[in-house]
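Report of the visiting student (M.T.), summer placement. My assignment was to run the structure pipeline on a short list of targets and document each run. The first record concerns Tyrosine--tRNA ligase.
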Amino acid sequence: MEPAPSPQEKYQLITRNLQEVLGEDKLMAILKERELKIYWGTATTGKPHMAYFVPMSKIADFLKAGCEVTILFADLHAYLDNMKAPWELLELRTRYYEHVIKAMLESIGVPLEKLRFVRGTDYQLSKEYTLDVYRLSSVVTQHDAKKAGAEVVKQVEHPLLSGLLYPGLQALDEEYLKVDAQFGGVDQRKIFTFAEKYLPSLGYAKRIHLMNPMVPGLTGSKMSSSEEDSKIDLLDRKEDVKKKLKKAFCEPGNVENNGVLSFIKHVLFPLKSEFVVLREEKWGGNKTYTAYEALEKDFAEQVVHPGDLKNSVEVALNKLLDPIREKFNCPELKKLSSAAYPTPSKAKPGEKGTKNSEPEDVIPSRLDIRVGKVISVEKHPDADSLYVEKIDVGEAEPRTVVSGLVHFVPEEQLQDRLVVLLCNLKPQKMRGVESQGMVLCASSVGEPRQVEPLDPPAGCCAGERVYVEGYEGGEPDEELKPKKKVFEKLQADFHISEDCVAQWKQRNFLTKLGTVSCKSLKGGSIS
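After the run finished, the structure tokens were exported:
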């Protein structure tokens, strides 16, 4: 038998690859006396995706360090967060999470018998817990509750009271799960510091907090369940994995916001302690790296090509996903998956709908709207009023788009500008040039007509998904059929608010960084 790791060795295992630790001295003091008790919680909202392997690999580290680990399926939190999981689907989604998280852990070799699995509603509806929620609400200010949830709870124009309760419940979980530490992403930091501030006011101990960095998605921004192109789902087919990795942001020599490299660093290296770059012999053959820093250095110096890196990650990722796919190939789990995450075309619980009308539901999530960056712009050779633009929308090649903006927006104002592009219209030839999308613009109501391209929030990346508030989930149509007039029906309710925010039926157009807007055309239409 291998000798038990020393407290220092345990500390190194527990903290490796973390971005931040709050309470390092307390952590070391506990490790010198006994095993650490720690929990990781996940709200049962959107489908878990490949970024969930990051906390899974840390859980493997915690077990190697001898920690007592609890996994919380935070079902009540999922409902409180702006009803991301409707009450009618809560039980189904929690069951889905239990199956898929356990399948992930098994795929990386984590023994399930060493873990404790708990549902939030197992204890959060008890008399004692409910009383503590009331006690906490009597000392927490609205400002602190809102600030604590700013990075985690969905931010909307008219927030619900439930979102203000969310941080308090997460703080109380530390006491009721009887742990020394809570582990989560660095986006949870404000909730963690909130817990450190307020738990002592109820007579409870301040806990240790361990934080993972946020792994970039495939588009270079945060990986998100609501942004389809940023993630690979755990049940994606191998051909879908290949397609998404092929489109992933992985610029030669660029190690910043590189989701492919980050996945290697935070998942594959901790699991295997090495990574093999697969290459043809003419390009030097396969190369095995035993330290991530050496791989990052070679990529930065362009010794490793993005294509080889993506292909190698594809092989390694599919090895992790294969047992999960196999487990979910049974009729029972297929049925659970469909029931927990019904297709967007079906009426939501509580909404009216008939079997005949289900496929024809006209909802904003059917539109594939993305942030685009104008790479080049020039006048159409055969039309004085049209521009021909090359627009980067996070794909392998920029799209060619024809826009009637010559009389409204100077060329130099379009060049290198971020725009909002509708990407799933059927390609259409405009005076001999095929247009592969539509730049969405605000238009004035009266004369003289004014037009302004919609502006995504500052800091967005090309390819980020734009969605309508409340319609974050669901897959857009691969291509909108002209005869169905889906876009035209939705467009009838597009407008610009008095605050210059783009809306559909008073619901804001959003990216993960905030609202989509225009410069000045209050009350205008969108086309």
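Residues 369-526 form a domain with the OB fold (Dihydrolipoamide Acetyltransferase, E2P) fold (CATH 2.40.50.140). The chain has a mean pLDDT of 88. I thank the supervising group for their guidance throughout the placement.
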